Records
---
Amino acid sequence: MNEQHISLAERAAEAAPVALVLLDMTGAIIFANLRAETLFGQSSHRLLGKTLQEAGPVGRAASELAQRALTENRSVYGHDLPVGMEGRALRLSVDATPDDAGVCVCLRPWPESGGGVHSEIAANAAAGFGMMLSHELKNPMAGARGAAQLIAQGEDEESRELAVLIINELDRARRIAERWSRVGDIGPPRQGQVNLHALVREAVRSARASAAPDVVWLEYFDPSLPDAWADRDLVSQAVLNLLINAGEAASQGGGRVKVYTRYRQPLPGGPAPDARLEIAIEDDGPGVEDALRDAIFNPFVTGKPAGEGLGLALVSRVADLLNGGVEFDTRPGRTVFHFYLPIERKDG
């Protein structure tokens, strides 16, 4: 690379809208742009020659990812990383990309404006009302199941089929309620291979039964997708919650819900970079209100007049328990929720 190209590269790095730090193969800082100086609270002159561990709280928050990128020789992404600073709440998104001479570390405040992201705080908060949720659900579910059993004994075939569907859904909800009573102090139970196509089709059937009849449901599945490694009941409930929300949003305009299963290529700074399978649910409704976007996964936050604000909190908690992630993109006429899961575990 000639001197002119080096000069242009340096100018581009200095003008970048994110903090950029270059490390050599020993982990020492050899370059820091203006945004990095501001974020670290130190001049470039003071940062040069230090390791990230020696560069203050921001550097310490990013050091582990940078070291992994160096030792594993691959790009490593992290988000929602806490920075140990007194009197100031700061969390970071960090991308570390190695090359033959060292590693480039990109740092940004998390979450960035406009993003709807999976929140670890929301997931933990959701666990706090698990016991209350379980207690409140058990009695009405038992009554509804008894009524469905009576309907299932009737002569009308269509009613019997719907009754069986109701009974199956109530039984699954009861199992989830029992486990949510302890969800704050257990890991994800009963994990195994999960065929996402079969799971999504069942969830679509249930969501369709509760949606407006003029909503059109479309499925776009990748037939080569492997099984996920997850808890089927929990994933089914999370996907059903997303589908019901999408159906309600689409029904405001007599619109469409599109459901995708596909491989996922994580973007720098995205949630759960090791979760490579995606279920995406898109609707053409009005979109998420601006005032709700940053807190949409928190318990009791809702834009529905009669909503309780528990559905997306549960989705967030399930994603956290299963080492997956969830995020969304929204604008009027198009909202997409992306639910990520790890691929089936290969023992040995």
---
Amino acid sequence: MKIRSRRALRSLIFLYCCSLLAWQTARAEVKDTVFLKNKSVLIGKIKSMSLGKLTIDADDVGVVSIKVTKIFTVRAATHFYRLESIHREVFFTRIEPDTTAGHIRITTGDSTISMPLDEVATLSSFKGPKSAQWEGTVSAGYSFTRSSTIGRLNGDGTIKCITRKWETVAQYSVIITQTDTGWTRDNESGGLTGYYFIDPQWQAVGYLNYQRNLELGLARRFQEGAGMAYSLLSSSHIRVRTGTGIVFNQELNIEGVQSPTQVEIPFVNSFNFFSFSKPDMSLTSTQNLFFSLTQKGRIRHDGQIKLTWKPITDFSINLTLYDNYDSQPPGEDAATIDYGIVFSLGYTFSQ
């Protein structure tokens, strides 16, 4: 009991000293504070927390991502936060420091509870009920072989907007081939997806997509759909989501022939794993399977597995394996499968 009392007393003294330092540094302006286990303090604006990392826009330092294993506690009282726990509970709360290492205190009605940081699945900040948080990534790569005089340029980008009840994701990717005669867009996709949070597990989904794949004989495909998504697993290391619904496709093949509107049932699965111990790496997988209701026997699959390594903050090295399969491709004498490996360098930003 004496040992525990001494530890609690040391924790209180540490928090008091850190709070005094934070107050003197921030002066009249109230700011968020992150207390680290090595006795360091970061003051600024906490932006988010996900997959084992907390992101703060620190004074005189800039945007910094910190592994939760290095954090003693956190004070975040300048904004409201949407906090989702690994137990699938959702709180809209302010965050106060805790005397126990690796814990925070959150408000639930008229009471407060202590919560371990490693039980926080996601944390998003909002200035007010109608405010939003923005974050995104962009990456690009290029390869060239002298023997074939063929160059290949690839690029992709994602922008995410999060509010209290909505998550909207816009994404685009392209693979361009350079030859002696010019440039061709071999593989291209873009889309806008909106998630409405019904509860911590269920989301209503709506999406608009565009695709192009010359290997499969597809000049363009416009896709509109709606459905439901379910969060199978949400933890500090892993997020798994699955969903289904109905989609409508308008296709044009490379011969210029427009197909009648196709109706499909999709089965969408996404997996995200993050390792916040060295090395700083993440693995994401998206696997989409489509069964046609209007074209008997037609099955399509779009898949992507992406490995990301961050050697320094905000910059990443990416390796992506993609595949596209169509049992009845729209182009005449077109292949039924296309796949490839893409290498790129990326940058992450948030607001």
---
Amino acid sequence: MTSLEELRRVNARCIHCRACQYAYSGEPDKEGETEEYTGMLQGCPAGIYYGWEGYFNSGKQWMTRAFLNGELPASRELLEIAEACTTCGMCETQCENYIDTVAITEALRAAVIEAGVEPLDKHKGFAVRVGDDGLRNPYNEPRAERTKWFAGKVDNKDAKVAYFVGCTAAYREQQIAEHTASIMDKLGIEYTVLTDEVCCGSPILRTGQRDVFRKVMEENKELYKDFDLVLFSCAGCYKTFRNDYPTMSGEPLPFKVRHAVEYVYDLVAEGKLKIEKPYSKKVTWHDPCHSIRHVGIAIEKEILENSENWLLDSRAGKKAKEKHFEIPRVVLNAIPGLELHEMYRIKGDSFCCGAGGGVKAQFPDFALSTAKERLKEAASTGSEVIMTSCPFCVTNFTHGIEALQKEEQETGADLSAAGSKLEVVELLELLDSLL
């Protein structure tokens, strides 16, 4: 696994320009529909919420350098600051020096824990429960009930496609799992769900607990090695398999991976699927950080890693990344009657929902505040629906809207401009109703 020391030279590229604090740092004159969403906005959820340099990526990069040089000791305070980050990757999008900012933050967390600092309370619970043979998930739910929602044939080793459900869809947002399975049934895909599926390890890796992550990574790689394709409805699970497993193991995956929305996109783009039923609503799309920005960045870097001519290949990498960002938009625009109204910060510059990186469990107020900021941006488009394709985004946005509605009831104020009237819709759920 890549250690913090191995990232020293990458960290050294940080010149503290602070471009990473913003969205559209290379496009300061960008115009939006409202004065509030115009120009160069801050884009770091942690920096916005806490307001101190140390919580922005620029501060974390310099604290990392000080830690590597022995100038800043491992401490509970340092770990708390490092963990108060959704690892959304907005900073990485803005960095012109191609610094792997998220990898460095995650490695710093791991290094502080390996130096003897106890993981934060909620995060420590993740590892304990994921490592428990009776659970194997961070939600403290019985392992035997992981596939209880599924009416199809489990453990069908004759199938060439497996659906990796993920913990959140298996235990908290089961309607997403049910609709994803229904889509595959309607598309005629022979697939299966495995009862031995365990947590992908994302919450463990993000919070610096690498020993447990290594265990579940190897289990899942072994479990799915005989399948041709593994499909996902969870953005976090997909990113962990696609990006993190090869990076952390040093080996390519023994199977192909695809998010279910990408699978539908493939069929639409090839002219093999036409959606006939209309959906006549005004929709704004929220790009999940893991499946859109992180995967897009990985696509670009994979091209550059094999490059013999950066001048040409940097353009090719950017073009490939931008094509990836368009995937959900191609699907949305294939739905009759749907009016897409984009938010100001989108695609690689999309603002985070606030739930990732272990934040929702350990820093719930921070997570909720970030969701409210994104909901306000969504409401500014005049849309009725905020749509996404990530169980964690759905959960956090739902909690944000519930908090706004509660505030309306208590104060009598109209918070529709803040997003209280928005409906949260998962794209896979919608697609299931239209196919």
---
Amino acid sequence: MRSVIVAACVAFVLTLFGTPFAIRGFTRLRAAQPIRDINTSHAGKRGTPTMGGVVFIVGTVVAYFAGHLVLNTLPEQQIAPPGPTITGLVLLGLMVFSGAIGFIDDFLKVRKRNSLGLNKRGKLILQLIVGSVFGVVALYFPATNGQTVGSTHVSFIRDIRWMDIGKVGAVVLFLAVVMATTNAVNLTDGLDGLATGASIMVLGGYLLISFWQYRHWCADVRSPTFTSAYCYSPRDPLEVALIAGAAAGACVGFLWWNASPARIFMGDTGSMALGGLIAGMAMATRTELLLLVLGLLFVIITMSLIIQIVSFRTTGKRVFRMSPLHHHFELAGWSEVNIVIRFWIIAGIGVAVGLGMFYGDFLRVAG
């Protein structure tokens, strides 16, 4: 646990004190977030630098290695891998390369001085490449004990035994989860601090889940809490906890500057990076379907856009004043701070319910 705490603290300090340098640097480069004319309530945000996701991506990666330095000095290293693992490669790779797609999108927006950025086809192709590559790594590169980062089973709180979809099917599912989550977090990033705060809660949820799995890990038969009746079989649960702690700490430090009124935006660089990381954690902890509960706010916001599109194309009428959902409430007269806080409450409820379901299953099996 000490390695996880160290990683979280290092990431927090790096982003808290590193973000002001990024603000000044991106401001000098005139990397300002383009504001759509249709959303006049955000006109005052013109000139605010974007691409802030670079800060917490770097903070997470640096903190991950700092956590491993601590891990190598602890007795935990007898059970947990002493160095970076394939699990770490997949999770951080998803974060970095998904963030790189977002960076290209942000760069094009800044260069063209409009909100169009990377076209949908280009973004889709790049997401397919990133998701497929890391999906293959997750399913086709086993450890010495034969375990892989991903599973060939569809999972909820654990692998669902009768839903074995094979390696090819698992890669396709991995790809679908990555694409859905990156775009969902990206849609949520529309108000100051909204996506950052919601992501902190989800990452915190995965920190608790993965550390609990580590404490009841099937590979750790020497643990005093080990019982074969309710052990968990993910490949490297402590590794997932380490990265979740680092990412959550980095986002908390970034939120200091991203909360309303934001001094910097995470941009697509940050939102897509967080989406890719969260998707990878869902796969690595065998909780793909539970992500729909843990990421309740992301699901609601994504569904609001889908409902708006379907309704307009089939009936010519809009269900919401504007989508995604948070913009609907802006046009309804809610203040930005009220929307963010209330949506954070929804995100927190989703995480609390998801953790309750996870622990409830543990009690059911253990009992």
